[in-house]
Amino acid sequence: MNKIEAIILDWAGTAVDFGCFAPVRVFIDIFRRAGLEVTMEEARAPMGMLKIDHIRAMLTMPRVAALWEAKYNRPFNEGDVEELYAVFEPALMASLSEYTDPIPGVLETVEALRADGLKIGSTTGYTSSMMEVVASNAREKGYRPDYIVTPDDTGSFGRPCPYMIFRNMEQLKLSAVWKVVKVGDTVSDMKEGVNAGVWTVGVAVGSSELGHSLESFHRMMGPDKQAAIAKTKQTFLEQGADFAIGTMSGLPLVVGKINELLAQGKRPGCKV
């Protein structure tokens, strides 16, 4: 039948860690230790990528590259990337377990999707060793996808490459890319889904793109909150998402809409 078979979820900022704060704080800290003050926006911009690729992407940003040259009197090189990552990884590992709470609505949404017969896969920008910490802690709190793929499983080719999605499809025995929905909270997630040819959905609340902790999100006034959500959703759509939703609780309705589109012969990337 022409129906969705599986949902492939990102981890931090989508399923767990409201606001995706575990890595962003460490990125800011390791650059500060290197003598560079980077902004929260600069630290978040490449979010979703394999973390060493994230560091490399930050160093190529014009302002950050200029700061590096001013500090060290030379452009950055690959050795610098590796040295920063060598500091980043243990720092992140030390704090990861504190950032594994499922985002509100995720457990109920996953339960509803499974009740409709859908499989739950996952991709991430974390390495396998990082995911051992995240997945084990999330499991104790009730979140456990059917399969986990990290860039370590695809030769370190993380997002925006589509290979982690394809590995999920292989292991979950999915029949076609257009029967798969990828859900994430970053521009890298959207590009991953588009490159894989699957239906791509961006979720705003809890996302790295929105950039708020659960506490600061609740403190936002109604008009400001709605404007921030609308801006985040628009960013996802501009980056190729087929749908953008406020919270994960809206995902079952989107799956229903996609099934209607499939019945009409539509495929990912169609103008809906």
Write a brief structural summary.
Helices cover 50% and strands 8% of the residues. The chain has helices spanning 21-33, 40-44, 51-60, 62-72, 78-95, 106-115, 128-140, 163-172, 187-196, 214-219, 222-238, 251-263; strands spanning 6-9, 119-122, 180-184, 199-203, 243-245.
**How many helical elements?**
12
Query: Level of helix content?
Result: 40-55%
Structural class based on helices, strands and sheet pairing: alpha/beta
Give the SSE order as H and E letters: EHHHHHHEHHEHEHHEH
List the uncertain runs. none
User: How are strands sequenced across the largest beta sheet?
Assistant: 2-1-3-4-5
In round numbers, the mean pLDDT is: 96
Q: Sheet with the most strands? A: 5 strands, parallel
Shape: globular
Rg measurement, Å: 18 Å
Can you describe what's shown?
There is one protein chain. This protein is an alpha/beta fold. It is 50% helix and 8% strand. The protein is built from 12 helices and 5 strands. The chain has helices at residues 21-33, 40-44, 51-60, 62-72, 78-95, 106-115, 128-140, 163-172, 187-196, 214-219, 222-238, 251-263, and strands at residues 6-9, 119-122, 180-184, 199-203, 243-245. A 5-stranded parallel β-sheet has the order 2-1-3-4-5, sandwiched between helices. β3 (180-184), α9 and β4 form a beta-alpha-beta unit. The longest helix is centred in the first third of the chain and has 18 residues, at 78-95. The radius of gyration is 18 Å and the shape is globular.
